[in-house]
Design a protein that fits this description.
It is a single chain. This protein is α+β, with helices and mostly antiparallel strands. It has two domains: 153 residues, no CATH class; 128 residues, no CATH class. It contains ten helices and nine strands. The chain has a nine-stranded antiparallel β-sheet. The longest helix has 13 residues.
Length: 305
């Protein structure tokens, strides 16, 4: 279905990539299916009935007619070298970082604005564009040393300020722990977090959080999914991301940039839960490093938990 993607044209683009609006159908064609974060295309956002009836050729022809004047694709829809390089990580089994949770039904609204994928030494973000015409922008994040500033620029987030320092604190996956932190309930926090780390620092952070509403308003939430080692499903003729490796993990990261503190809700595949996963909490005091470093960081399940 997507054999044309093996061809490229090397002519320089006439329109900067950052100024081009892509539809979800464009990105389905260019990526050969769903993007890794299933943001532009996923099971509830893509017209799979149209694919079943007509294939992707009508979408490819429409894309070529609209975008060939930009120089990013030619008259047949073949992407330029620049576009191929920018798209490269977006359908690979890397680490996807979304600024929100993906909807779990077609009736749910997708509140995400950005999905970035980091694979090998490449990183690119898909950003939802505002306005009536909507669509998506493709934002290459540059070399690895540029990822953090570029990613924060896309999502409008300040850098991490390492105000709190200490070893990572571990606890169970329990909503009551978060509620105790919001109340500044030191006794409950100490009762839950008995698996290592600087619990004193966590209690100090919790007390500050409970007394300062501005700290809570500064929080940013991200969903991080590590697909490394997986093989994506192509049985339907297009790529569908699947976490097929036993080393895959997912976390919900609630980040407080002014404090340099990240509350990680970890999920690992070890058969402990009803869905074959096991959840636990890891509160990370980011004394060094960047936001992207913190989001990409895996926190292994501690002994005894």
């Amino acid at each position: 279905m997507f054999e044309f993607l093996t061809r490229r044209h090397a002519a320089p683009a006439e329109t900067p990539l950052s100024e081009v609006r892509f539809t979800r159908e464009d990105l389905f064609v260019l990526l050969g299916g769903f993007d890794t974060g299933m943001f532009a295309n996923g099971p509830y956002s893509t017209d799979l009935r149209s694919i079943e009836l007509h294939g992707a050729d009508p979408w490819r022809r429409d894309m070529a007619a609209r975008l060939s004047s930009t120089g990013l694709v030619d008259a047949e829809g073949t992407p330029s070298d620049e576009l191929v390089e920018a798209l490269y990580p977006l359908n690979k089994p890397g680490v996807a970082i979304d600024d929100g949770a993906s909807p779990q039904s077609a009736r749910k609204r997708d509140s995400r604005t950005t999905s970035a994928v980091f694979y090998m030494e490449s990183g690119t973000a898909i950003r939802r564009l505002p306005g009536r015409r909507s669509g998506f922008a493709i934002v290459p994040l540059g070399a690895e040393g540029e990822w953090d500033a570029a990613f924060r620029g896309v999502i409008g987030c300040p850098p991490l300020d390492p105000s709190w320092k200490g070893p990572t604190v571990y606890g169970p996956e329990d909503r009551a722990l978060g509620e105790a932190m919001l109340r500044g309930d030191e006794a409950r926090i100490r009762a839950y977090c008995r698996y290592g780390g600087d619990v004193d620092a966590l209690c100090e952070f919790s007390a500050a959080l409970a007394s300062n509403s501005g700290m809570l308003r500064s929080m940013r939430e991200f969903i991080v999914a590590d697909y490394r080692g997986s093989e994506f499903d192509t049985s339907l003729g297009f790529s569908i991301p699947q976490a097929s490796s036993p080393s895959c993990w997912v976390k919900t990261a609630r980040v407080f940039p002014p404090c340099g503190v990240v509350l990680n809700g970890m999920k690992v595949q070890d058969g402990g839960g009803s869905d074959g996963s096991f959840g636990y909490s890891a509160i990370d005091f980011c004394s060094s490093g960047t936001l992207v470093d913190a989001l990409l960081r895996f926190h292994a399940r501690p002994e005894g938990l």
